[in-house]
From TrEMBL:
It comes from Daphnia pulex. Transmembrane segments: none annotated. InterPro entries: NFX1_fam, Zinc_finger_PHD-type_CS, Znf_NFX1. This is NF-X1-type domain-containing protein. One of its GO terms (molecular function) is RNA polymerase II transcription regulatory region sequence-specific DNA binding.
Length: 733
């Protein structure tokens, strides 16, 4: 898979050099890393390796004392992609094919770029003494396809025929080999290499035998922290070694020793201290030029105080100073540093000016960042940062070198678009992620019309791209550009409702289906045909709206032609009208039964009384309603109202005659025809008591009325007095 990817990138020209961030062409001289197999320009990797070694050398020299130097040959360089280290001897100087057998291979369009076309013949990995049989190719060689007969790691399983690349295998059984402790066996499953240390523990003694502890079985020997302390053979000193086996060593002071200056060797007892030999010390002092002039002595030699003429580090001035002092002049170095931009300016410089320690701070090729390396000569390295370019939803991304994000298209994303809808719908129609605005929503509007209450089924029009015409203003001249129409996203109202709605014409003659937005009632053109207000004729106007109150049909202008009631000779005074004609209210003069009062009777009442059983009857209608003026034999007037015919007899007189006791409490009403049969009425005890009580109540009532009258007078007097006092006080102020 790696080989195929490399071949495709080389053939298509999409392979990029990570140093110069430029495409690796099919005819370019390249170098291929043996670890990550990336292809880089030969000149770029040479400069990269040399700069890498130079910067490592300069960084190491910053930590050394003056006068010391760093050997640059000990530093390695690394691949800019995988950071695999290579020695300096492997810095490429020539252009080779992938199998490293052909120098400067020629480009062949029928072969993989930078391939020689011969067999690879590299040793396969892991090394099995077989070679790669493929043609010269980029990337790693495939696993060895040869077959071999091998057994497992522990050699307990029978021999099997396997691929050479997977010839080492485990049978899964216990190893059971004897471990290094010579007591236990390996319990690990069949494995490669040496058996691991014995994991079991045992009680073991230290080397001196004074301490015993539980320790892993594989580490038999161990030292405790106890000093031996045994008396040495000299019987004067004790052993200062820590926990050791066997006999203590000879006393170190009994061996041959020298004087402090090292010129005279003596062998004396260990109790005798070796003193100075009396000769000059002669050891080389720290200055490295003069020797110590003191007698043989112990300890460190002193400082060199001899005077000598010393040159400064830059060699421009000389001065006589004690040897231990270093002479530095005040002259500033005028050499240009390795960056070829800044002067050294170091006092008394030795000529090996240090690298420039300022920050380069030049803009990098990415145009986004500045170089943060130390100031250097030549072009800066490309920006090592990367930028993630994401799709619109942010879930698919690609990583490109910094600076290419402006020219790199966003990656194609196959995931659903997650942009929120810009219309009133809860979600958009499902579509894949894309750049720019989402396509117009094609879902049905489904809004409920406020006018008609129907659901709008037109395509969504909440967010629609509408062309706005340019303002029609007269240009100042032909040089002034014409204003082009603009496109804006606007919210459009719902289109006219097309739902068929049954509509009845104004006159309610027919009902037909019309679109909802045209569902206003209209005239069908037929005659109205409604019954006029008179209920005798119909409206002849063309179909029109009819109001319930008042109705707007035409008015009937004809006279009333209905028949008059029996006995009425007067014509109807109204025009054509609904219902029966109004009653004839003209008055007719007629005498009553008694002949005393002439009656003015309406025509309708007189004509209605002719019919039998009508109310009022003709007898009642011609009666003047007064009492009959005629007297009965009992001298009472006839009790009947004005009537026709003879009056009633005395036995029919029912005039009430009141009969009472002397105090008038007991009263009785007796009809006139029964008066002769009724006895006289006399007072009783109740009448007498009642007479007394009425007298007392009358007196009490008069007393209460007097008191109430006095109280009202008193209140009125007080109110008047207060009002008078208030006015008087106001006048005094």
């Amino acid at each position: 898979k790696i080989e195929q990817v490399l071949k495709d990138s080389l053939r298509s020209g999409t392979s990029v050099c990570l140093i110069c961030i430029d495409s690796v062409k099919k005819s370019d001289f390249i170098w291929s890393c043996t670890k990550c197999y990336c292809s880089l320009h030969l000149t770029c990797i040479q400069r990269w390796a040399k700069d890498s070694i130079y910067f490592q050398t300069e960084a190491a020299s910053d930590h050394l004392a003056p006068g010391q130097h760093v050997d640059p040959r000990k530093f390695n360089w690394c691949c800019p992609k995988c950071r695999a280290e290579y020695p300096q001897a492997t810095i490429p100087t020539r252009y080779y094919c992938y199998c490293l057998k052909t120098q400067d291979p020629q480009f062949d369009p029928w072969l993989v770029p930078h391939s020689c076309g011969a067999k690879c013949e590299k040793l396969l990995q892991p090394e099995c003494k077989h070679t790669c049989l493929l043609l010269c190719h980029p990337g790693p060689c495939p696993p060895c396809p040869q077959t071999v007969s091998v057994t497992c790691f522990c050699a307990k399983s029978p021999v099997e025929t396997r691929r050479c690349s997977s010839q080492t295998w485990s049978c899964g059984k216990k190893c059971s080999k004897l471990l290094s402790c010579k007591e236990h066996k390996c319990e690990v499953t069949c494995h490669s290499g040496a058996c691991p240390p014995c994991p079991k523990k045992s009680s073991q003694k230290c080397l001196c035998g004074s301490k015993k502890e539980e320790r892993p079985c594989h580490s038999i020997e161990f030292q405790c922290d106890k000093v031996c302390g045994k008396m040495l053979d000299c019987r004067h000193h004790k052993c200062e070694a820590v926990c050791h086996p066997g006999k203590c060593a000879t006393c170190p002071l009994a061996l041959p020793r020298t004087c402090p200056c090292g010129k005279k060797a003596v062998t004396v007892a260990c109790t005798v201290e070796v003193g100075g030999c009396g000769d000059t010390c002669g050891k080389l002092l720290e200055c490295g030029i003069h020797e110590c002039a003191e007698r043989c002595h112990k300890g460190k030699c002193g400082t060199c105080w001899q005077m000598r003429v010393q040159s400064c580090r830059c060699g421009l001035k000389k001065k006589e100073l004690p040897c231990y002092k270093e002479f530095q002049c005040e002259t500033k170095c005028k050499h240009i540093k390795d960056c070829r931009r800044h002067p050294c300016n170091r006092k008394c410089c030795t000529g090996t000016c240090p690298p420039c320690d300022q920050i380069c701070n030049r803009p990098l090729g990415c145009k986004n960042h500045k170089c943060v390396s130390r100031c250097h000569q030549g072009p800066c390295y490309p920006c090592d940062l990367t930028v993630d370019i994401t799709c619109s939803c942010g879930r698919t991304k690609i990583t490109v070198p910094c600076g290419r994000e402006k020219h790199t298209k966003p990656p194609k994303c196959s995931l659903p678009c997650t942009k929120p809808p810009d219309c009133h719908h809860e979600s958009r129609t499902k579509h894949i992620c894309h750049s720019g605005g989402c396509p117009p929503c094609k879902q049905p509007c489904l809004k409920v019309s406020e006018r008609c209450g129907h659901i709008c089924k037109a395509p969504c029009h909440t967010s629609v791209l509408v062309q706005i015409s340019a303002p029609t203003q007269q240009r100042a001249g032909p040089w002034e550009p014409k204003q082009a129409p603009k496109m804006e996203i606007k919210k459009l109202p719902c289109p006219p409702c097309p739902v068929p709605v049954p509509v009845t014409c104004l006159g309610e003659h027919e009902t037909a289906d019309w679109p909802c937005h045209l569902s206003a009632p209209s005239s069908c053109g037929r005659p109205c045909g409604r019954e006029l207000y008179c209920t005798n004729h119909t409206c002849m106007k063309p179909c029109h709206a009819v109001a319930t109150n008042p109705r707007n049909c035409q008015l009937c202008e004809e006279l009333c032609s209905k028949n008059r009631p029996e006995g009425c000779t007067h014509p109807c005074a109204r025009k054509c009208h609904p219902g029966p004609c109004p009653t004839c209210t003209k008055l007719i003069k007629h005498s009553c039964h008694c002949g005393l009062n002439p009656q003015l009777i309406r025509c309708n009442e007189l004509s209605d009384s002719i019919a039998p059983g009508s109310l009022p009857s003709r007898e009642q209608l011609l009666s003047c309603k007064d009492r009959c003026p005629k007297l009965l034999p009992c001298k009472h007037r006839c009790p009947v109202s004005c009537h026709s015919g003879d009056c009633a007899s005395q036995l029919d007189c029912v005039t009430t005659v009141h009969v009472s006791c002397p105090c008038k409490r007991i009263k009785k009403a007796v009809a006139c025809n029964l008066l002769s049969k009724q006895a006289a009425v006399s007072c009783d005890d109740i009448c007498r008591r009642k007479k007394d009580q009425e007298l007392k109540l009358k007196e009490e009532k008069e007393r209460v009325q007097r008191e109430e009258e006095e109280r009202r007078n008193r209140i009125e007097l007080e109110q008047f007095q207060r009002k008078f006092d208030k006015r008087r006080n106001k006048d005094h102020r």
